[in-house]
Amino acid sequence: MSIQWFPGHMNSAKKQAEEQMEFIDLVIEVLDARLPEASCNPMVDRMRKFRQRPILKILNKTDLADPAATAAWKAYYDALPGVTAYPMTTKKPADVARIPALALSLAPHRGVPTKPLRIMIMGIPNVGKSTLMNALLKKRVAKVGDEPAVTKVQQKLYLDKHTVLVDTPGLMWPKIEMPSDGLMLAASHAIGTNALIEEEVAFFLGDVLLERYPQLLTARYGFKTEGLDGIGVVEQVAARRGFRVRGGEFDVEKAAHVLLHDYRSGAIGRISLETPDSRSARIEAHRAEVAEKARIAAEKAAQKAEEAARGKRGTQAAPE
Ligand code: G4P
């Protein structure tokens, strides 16, 4: 099973973001702290590198993420050139309030009233861009006249007299190369699914929880996790909650829905779906799988070609 996501308006949004990049000083990319790389679009980094703009990667929703994983991601991103990570939650006004000063420190040549720092907020759907913008703009000072004429067509949203947001969030879409990214994005609700896929997503989540947070499963639902797999987790949720369909079978659909809902709301606990280490292990496994598929396909193609050549030789050799 593979989840894909190709909205038709992706190209025009990309073009718009590329154009805006020229007129901004700093990119703020909002990521989901529970799945930072799966919730990032690599195009953002390519665009900002092309224009040599620094980037502030906001690891948002830390209230839902595993603090140890978030600390590992911060160290990982801070080690990359031009990148600064800021773990935060829009639920804490103090976290939001630190952003303008942090942003200014990343582009020190800007930030005077005649040269305000120009920021673009980018990110895939549901990571919290709008919530963040609204929280930031509570401090809005409407002094649009101070802005030098850079892009007159665009409305400027002032955070304070030193900092201005371009008005449209740079909406990007996840680039799903690995099937596990699609599952993580669906689990965290960044992309929608139908009921059938929801079960697959819940099985995947069950596997992740078993591997990394078995004690949280036991604490929430009261079952032992030894010997279970992802499907077993969902069945145990059904068993514990008494979700059965007619005939006595487990109501897996309902249990899948409950598991996902509990995860998304934080009811199971603070859970990160990936860490820098688990990410590199997944990438390696994915590459090995792709290489193996390519090897099998090449072998099949060679076999077919050989059979075709043999058939041709046979026809040519056959007497009239
Ligand atoms: P977007 O513009 O990037 O698409 O995201 P938006 O601000 O609309 O936020 C998406 C969801 O994430 C919203 O919940 C919002 O309340 C929630 N959210 C934003 N920041 C945080 C945070 O720091 N912590 C937590 N826990 N939630 C945050 P929603 O409308 O209920 O959507 P959903 O979560 O049910 O999908």
Task: Note down, in words, how this protein is organized.
The protein is α/β, with parallel strands linked by helices. The protein folds into two domains: 9-167, P-loop containing nucleotide triphosphate hydrolases (Rossmann fold, 3-Layer(aba) Sandwich); 197-265, Conserved Hypothetical Protein Ylqf, Chain: A, domain 2, CATH 1.10.1580. It is 49% helix and 11% strand. The chain has twelve helices and seven strands. It has helices at 10-21, 42-50, 67-78, 93-97, 99-106, 129-137, 179-187, 195-212, 214-221, 230-241, 252-265, 276-317; strands spanning 26-32, 55-60, 83-87, 117-123, 156-160, 163-166, 170-171. Strands 1, 2, 3, 4, 5, 6 and 7 form a seven-stranded mixed sheet that branches. The chain is globular, with a radius of gyration of 25 Å. The N and C termini lie far apart (52 Å). The structure holds guanosine-5',3'-tetraphosphate. Guanosine-5',3'-tetraphosphate (G4P) binds at residues 60-61, 63-64, 89-91, 123, 125-131, 189, 264.
